[in-house]
């Protein structure tokens, strides 16, 4: 593998593998510091230039925010391109899996605020991430959280109401209900739903909705939130998959029962205002960072 990298980088080990490429830990011999090298294909399986790769590179180059991963360098290799990124030793996913050392309430609040500030920055740039989840939230040695993995990111044009986006995005557990019902007309609120699921997972220690199929995922959401009321979300009936399956009527679960260890109502209130059926009613990232939960 070392042969593919310019002499500036010495690859040490593979540290991750995803849909959009492999990630290696390396040493930047010029700066004498660790970096992450993500190897991505320049062409897709049909032989065309990969839009996912181009979107990821463009997003990283556009983003200059302390809560977004930095791109350091870019070079071609035998399979496509290598993106040189700042090295982050941990992910939020790894921290949540560490049962011996659970997150403190202070850490949860700090990480939630950093994530939301990063999302706010992206949304102001007109970018939807579309795959906010613990595995894509990297954490530095000094506990700074940064959003990574922009393979599914898209520019969003709020003035173009008829623009369609793929419903085959985001990891199932964090997928907004409008996408689960097949909508191709969605926007930044899909990231807000996902962020609410992440905050809930930090508070609970386990995912809020852990479905094994799309139908089970939707069933879990309905069982938890209750059957959506059409007077509160009239657009639901126009979703492509709305009439394809019927779920039993559900009254929903009281939020307090979902978070038995939470002692502050503001924690639950933040989640409850992000994990809402109607995308128009979810907090925006700008509103979320001003929530009273962060004012203490």
Automatic annotation (TrEMBL):
Which residue numbers delimit the Protein kinase domain? 9-294
Supply the SMART domains for this chain. Answer: S_TKc
**Chain coiled-coil ranges:** none
What Gene Ontology cellular-component terms does the record carry?
A: cilium; cytoplasm; nucleus
GO terms classed as biological process: cell division
**Gene Ontology molecular function: any one:** ATP binding
Top-rank EC class of the record's enzyme = transferase
Q: What is its EC number?
A: 2.7.11.22
**One Pfam family per UniProt:** Pkinase
The family annotation for this protein states:
Belongs to the protein kinase superfamily. CMGC Ser/Thr protein kinase family. CDC2/CDKX subfamily.
Q: What is this protein called?
A: Cyclin-dependent kinase 20
Query: What is the name of the gene encoding this protein?
Result: 106089204
